[in-house]
Design a protein that fits this description.
Blueprint (H helix, E strand, L loop, with lengths): L1 E2 L27 H4 L6 E4 L2 E5 L16 E2 L2 H7 L3 E3 L13 E4 L3 E3 L6 E3 L20 E2 L2 E4 L5 E3 L2 H5 L5 H6 L6 E5 L9 E5 L7 E2 L37 E4 L7 E8 L16 H4 L5 H12 L7 H13 L10 H18 L13 E3 L13 E20 L22 E16 L1 H8 L2 H22 L12 H20 L7 E8 L2 E8 L10 H4 L3 H15 L7 H4 L34 H4 L17
Parallel strand pairs: 1-6, 5-19
Antiparallel strand pairs: 2-3, 3-6, 4-5, 7-8, 7-9, 10-11, 10-15, 12-13, 13-14, 16-18, 17-18, 18-19, 19-21, 20-21
Helix pairs in contact: 11-13
């Protein structure tokens, strides 16, 4: 991660000039997608920066250090031609990810002045007060809106909120802001802001985090996008501003979309037709496709015509009902359906070359041992490749919501690529018996318990949608919560029995009317990635023992009876019998941010054991 080259003069609009610093911060490639992506704040030593956007003018990612990767299914879903890995180089003299200084407001602990960084006249390459020679402190507070904009905290308006509204509107009084701490407590009441103009009394930061605190001052979002610099002038947005701490997780939340590489797109080759698929999809006739390819490649198409037609047919198979999908959710669901079908049918290694990226085989052991548990169809996924793309990001996102809204793209202008990372590893896929699952779902007690969760989660989604907006329906169903909780207890069990850290394993749920499976796989690219330990857990005899052990472990939580008997759990009540002492995982392992969990659906309750899908099997 490298700050952008220094400029001769600040931008005319007062935006943050990007500087070269004598030190660099190190960010792993995966973090550039999940933690420190475009638009996020990152701290380097005592300074704070925002990761630059992907616009050509910003040149945030050097193309020669950001290799292209291809995943045709995901690229089609997101409307791009390909993806790029975050830039990485062993040469410290080369730029990596570019950053810009943000927030610009800094304070000096010695003289207590609070002003823009450049007004302290720091020496080149340093962040210290030009008078006191003391390291400057970036503002602890920023403001954001639900549309994804980010701006400086309006200290001047906060101090002068009781003074003349005419002066407040201009933001000028001739004085200098100062910030100090009384040291009495660690609360906001001890952080004091004043102005030397003496037109307003010294005030504390207490109350600045109220939902309507800035709205009461007559302030609205101006649409600032500091990660894009001068290339994206601010435009008034008008939404309500909220105060946030600079290091809060609510400042930046990624919107990640992922897909597994499955046949016929998993042969490991680059895609020479990446920029031509949109045009090729317009042709249904083989002859027209051939004419197009001859015109583009002058008769030397790098991909055989038969293979092009097979790929086009495979793409159309993912469209619901054979028609072009109308919504993003439908297309994403169709992508999952195709993965589910491939995981069920398998893809033997002996049928392909060594470059095949998806190998899924049936275990050799007797699968009938799993029948009493209601588990069926285990598959050993010996090789898999997953591509995770940063589609957008949000601010002020509800951490317990499974649906993203008000997304902000990583670029101010349309791009034909998106940032992404790829994970290669292994996993185990298993399904639940449809007949037994169908009977269990119809039980009145099961439906009633799940309905409580669905109602609570739908309330969260309605609140996020806002007034006048149509909220997305909650995905909560009995089988979805059951599969989700089962995946969590299995990951916990494998972290104990197989020696894998829970953070290195990840779930991928396939829960719908026609799907009832879960894939647990390695989710890191380090030494815990593909050593065969996860695949070994899928052999029927070992899987039977593991599932039984995981379910029995879930029968008791150190927070019981409170955990099991609670009427609501989690933010918004979207969980029931679930807590960090029993089924919750590191957030990197869970598709739903530790939301929509209930271990009672696994084991039942003391009053009604039949609520648990596995309760009868564990009695034998």
């Amino acid at each position: 991660m490298t700050p952008s080259p220094a400029r001769r003069r600040p931008p005319a609009n007062g935006g943050a000039p990007a500087h070269n610093l004598p030190r660099q911060g190190t960010v792993r490639r995966a973090q550039a997608i999940t933690t420190y992506g475009v638009g996020s704040l990152v701290a380097v030593d005592n300074e704070s920066f925002i990761v630059s956007g992907l616009d050509r003018a910003e040149e945030s990612w050097r193309a020669d250090e950001a290799p292209r990767i291809y995943e045709r299914r995901l690229a089609r879903l997101l409307g791009v031609n390909y993806f790029r890995l975050p830039p990485a180089s062993d040469d410290d003299s080369k730029d990596g990810m570019r950053v810009r200084r943000f927030p610009l407001m800094h304070s000096c602990p010695e003289c207590t002045e609070l002003q823009r960084h450049r007004d302290f006249n720091p020496k080149e390459g340093q962040s210290a007060c030009g008078t006191c020679e003391v390291d400057l402190v970036p503002s602890r507070f920023v403001v954001a809106c639900e549309a994804g904009h980010l701006d400086e905290f309006p200290y001047w308006h906060w101090v002068h909120r009781s003074s003349d509204r005419g002066a407040a509107a201009t933001g000028r009084c001739g004085g200098t802001l100062r910030l100090r701490s009384s040291g009495r407590t660690s609360s906001l009441r001890s952080i004091l802001v004043s102005c030397t103009c003496e037109q307003a009394p010294e005030v504390s930061m207490e109350g600045s985090f109220r939902r309507n605190a800035l709205k009461d001052l007559g302030l609205k979002c101006q649409g600032a996008r500091p990660w894009l610099g001068a290339s994206a002038p601010a435009q008034e947005c008008g939404l309500r501003l909220r105060t946030l701490q600079r290091g809060s997780s609510a400042v930046w939340q990624p919107v990640l979309k992922s897909a597994l590489s499955i046949p016929p797109w998993s042969d490991g080759r680059a895609d020479p037709l990446a920029e031509h698929w949109d045009a090729l999809r317009e042709y249904d006739n083989r002859e027209h496709v051939e004419i197009y390819l001859k015109g583009v490649f002058k008769g030397q198409c790098p991909v055989p015509l038969d293979e092009v037609m097979a790929l086009l047919d495979a793409e159309r198979e993912e469209d619901p009902d054979g028609e072009a999908p109308s919504t993003f959710d439908h297309r994403y669901r169709a992508l999952r359906n195709k993965e589910y079908d491939r995981l069920r049918s398998g893809n033997n290694e002996s049928d392909h070359s060594r470059d095949e990226q998806f190998v899924c085989e049936t275990p050799v052991g007797d699968q009938s041992v799993l029948a009493p548990l209601g588990v069926t169809g285990p598959m050993l996924v010996k090789k898999l490749r997953e591509v995770r793309a940063l589609k957008a990001f949000t601010r002020l996102a509800d951490p317990d919501s499974t649906i993203e809204s008000q997304e902000m793209p990583p670029s101010g202008s349309p791009l034909h690529w998106l940032p992404a990372m790829e994970v290669r590893g292994e996993g185990v896929f298993l399904r639940l018996d449809e007949d037994r699952l169908g009977s269990w779902e119809k039980a009145t007690a099961v439906a009633a318990r799940t309905e409580r969760m669905r109602t609570a989660h739908q309330r969260i989604l309605d609140q996020r949608a806002g007034d006048g907006s149509q909220a997305v329906s909650s995905p909560v169903t009995p089988r979805m919560v059951l599969l989700h909780t089962l995946a969590h207890v299995l990951i916990d069990e494998w972290s104990l029995e197989a020696g894998y850290p829970a953070a290195s394993l990840r779930e991928r749920l396939y829960a719908a009317d026609d799907m009832s499976g879960v894939l647990i796989y390695t989710a890191t690219s380090d030494s815990a990635g593909s050593l065969g330990g996860v695949v070994a857990q899928g052999e029927p005899a070992l899987l039977d023992r593991t599932v039984r052990s995981a379910i029995r472990r879930a029968e008791w939580c150190s927070s019981d009876p409170l955990c099991m008997e609670t009427a609501v759990s989690g933010v918004g009540g979207a969980n029931l019998a679930a807590c960090h002492a029993c089924v919750m995982l590191p957030e990197t392992s869970c598709e739903h941010n530790n939301c929509l969990l209930d271990r009672a659906l696994l084991i039942g309750t003391p009053e009604d054991p039949s609520v648990g899908f596995f309760s009868e099997a564990l009695q034998h």
